[in-house]
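REVIEWER CHECKLIST
Item 1: Sequence provided? yes
Item 2: Single chain? yes
Item 3: Sequence as submitted:
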Amino acid sequence: MKRMNYNWKELERIAQDRVGWRMLRWLSRCDTDKNNKITFDEFCRGFGIKLNEMRVEKIERALTWDNVTPVKPSNIDIIKSAMSETKQAKVIETFQKLMQQYGADEKNLDKVSSELKKFLEETYGNVWHVIIMNGSFWMSYSHEPFCSLQFKMNRHSCSVWRTPSGQRYSS
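Item 4: Structure as written out by the authors:
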């Protein structure tokens, strides 16, 4: 009975504070200074997300909301994306330039792949993966938040993603 009274009192306290059970879970995970507020910094630390990358992502998404996004070329089909439109445009533009520079011949696709990987790592940090394919494909992989893109240009499909830092993200 003692345990039940404790739980009931705890439920009353939560109801009075108007904080739900799910919110308590997030507060306990992210609210490091225990002030019942989660700052952007605390949120990123709580989920192991790199703060400077989230700030860049926030700016890029704000540009999208303000309709300052680049136009996607007509010969590109986005298959799947977890990336801001600004970042997508830079990746696709680089891919197109490399395809023009080296040609779409299969013997040169390894150069396109390695140069695109080099661009991604110099621009957005380590560790990126690039796959260029012909035809159908199916994939399952883990990636950093906002760091995955699959698109098709003519007969080539391209998939790029950044490897997670080893921390699992759960909700």
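Item 5: Key structural point noted by reviewer: The mean pLDDT is 79.
Item 6: Recommendation: ____
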